Amino acid sequence: MKLPAFIKTYDGVAVLDFPGMEIEPGKIYAVIGANGSGKSTFAKILSGVLPADRKVQLPQSVGYLPQKPYAFRMSTKKNILLGGSEEAKANELMWALQISHLEKKRADRLSGGETARMAIARLMMKAFDLVILDEPTAAMDIETTAAAESLILDYTGATGCATILVTHSLQQARRVADEALFFYKGKLMESGAKERLLYHPTQPETKRFLEFYGQ
């Protein structure tokens, strides 16, 4: 699958200049970098939520989970069923994400971590060619993060989609990713297999980032 090249500017200043790249089905790509490096802008443009400076051809089937997912004023289960009509699948996803006990609770009254798990379940009711997850576990504790990561791995393997995981956690990137992309000041500074990039980076900016955030 080809991710298109694009540029995003604000007031004439480029905040993201992505050269484009090939990604493979069935793989998870961790997007890492400091705050303000362009990670979320990258996710929003690929999902079609935010336009690039020029129109780009995006993959036809894209699932997107933003940093702050929306919960409709209906039960948790009904929110999940907005993603697909298979009730058995919804039950399975709720169980996997440890929110079965919340199925009748109004979703707009869930905590941040519960909302995130509900939104992951809603997205995974359907198969996509490309899935983009922007900090999906940021509001979760250790146990529920592990459950979500396990489901992300299972979903990617079962559907054969390519998954882009924006994360602030190097540990999470090491646990679940196949490849890693490092953004620095709006540019894709380095990419490659996670073992190489996260342990033996070639660019000085990547090395400094990994040293600062605790390699």
| Beta-strand fraction estimate | 15-25%
Q: How many distinct helices?
A: 8
Provide the spatial order of strands within the biggest beta sheet: 6-7-8-5-9-10
Which segments are poorly predicted (pLDDT under 50) over 5 or more consecutive residues?
none
Question: What's the CATH class label?
Answer: Alpha Beta
Distance between the termini: 31 Å
Would you give an account of this structure?
The chain is of the alpha/beta class. It has one domain: Rossmann fold (3-Layer(aba) Sandwich), CATH 3.40.50. It is 36% helix and 22% strand. The protein contains 8 helices and 10 strands. The strands form 3 sheets. The chain has a 6-stranded mixed β-sheet, sandwiched between helices. The protein has a two-stranded antiparallel sheet with strand order 1-4. A two-stranded antiparallel sheet has the order 2-3. β7, α5 and β8 form a beta-alpha-beta unit. The longest helix is centred in the last third of the chain and has 18 residues. It is globular, with a radius of gyration of 17 Å. The protein starts with a strand and ends with a helix. The mean pLDDT is 96.
